[in-house]
Amino acid sequence: MRRERLLDPHLLSQIVAQPTADNSADPTQDEPERIPQNSPLAVGLDLVPLLDALGPLDRQLADVLLLERASFRAASRRTGIPLGSIKRRRDQIVSRLQNPTVLTLHRAKGILDPLMRDIGLRYHLHRQTLTRISAELGLTRRNVSERLHFIRGYARAASRRRTV
Q1: C-beta separation of 104 from 125 below 8 A
Q2: Distance between start and end Cα atoms, the chain
Q3: C-alpha–C-alpha distance, residues 97 and 103, integer Å
Q4: Residue 51 backbone phi and psi in degrees, to 5
Q5: % helix, strand, coil for the chain, step of 5
Q6: How much is the pTM?
Q7: How many Å apart are CA 53 and CA 108, to the nearest integer?
Q8: E-only strand ranges, the chain
Q9: 16-21, Cβ contacts within 8 angstroms, sequence gap of 24 or more
């Protein structure tokens, strides 16, 4: 099974919300849910390298929901984030981790210039603005924009190579 499939929001909702035989969809139970046998988590794919690039709050939430397989209610209590926000943030984290550009940047660790990777991850994964990235890295907005344009082209070319 492909690594990208692991981060599919539908699959994650099935994994996280899978009722067990003894609590049969009782939302008050805080026991960890069981993982289906055909799930990538059951096969033991390593999520940690992808999750390491997240910000601290997103990383904490991903650890609680994906790695520890806690319920939404338990994750809300442990992180202090409202229950409705937990679900929304989980979907946002999954969609950002599924972004083909983020996956390409993750795979290109030793290939791409570290500054290019940093700019790409700041923009696509951490959702920072061009102005903030340029201010923090001491670059012009135009320079950051040109580098992001290159990164998008690099990601498209890398995805074509993988599909051939």
Answers
A1: no
A2: 18
A3: 7
A4: -75, -25
A5: 65, 0, 35
A6: 0.63
A7: 13
A8: none
A9: 16/65, 16/66, 16/69, 16/71, 16/72, 16/90
Place of tokens 């994750």: 75
Q: Closest Cα to residue 91, out of 69, 123, 66, 122?
A: 66
Structure token digits, residue 140: 């012009």
- The closest alpha carbon to 117, from 98, 138, 103, 130, belongs to 103
Measured CA to CA, the distance from residue 6 to residue 80 in angstroms comes to 26
Count of CB atoms within 10 A of residue 110's CB?
Answer: 7
d(C-alpha 112, C-alpha 94), whole Å: 24
pLDDT tens-digit readout, 145-160: 999 999 999 999 988 8
Distance of alpha carbon 40 from alpha carbon 22, whole angstroms: 24
Q: What is the pLDDT of residues 59-107, one digit of tens each?
A: 888 888 877 888 889 999 998 889 889 889 888 888 888 888 888 888 8
3-state secondary structure of 127: coil
Q: How far apart are CA 158 and CA 135, in angstroms?
A: 29
Handedness of CA 63, 40, 96, 152 (dihedral sign): positive
Residues 6+ apart with CB under 8 A from 17: 33
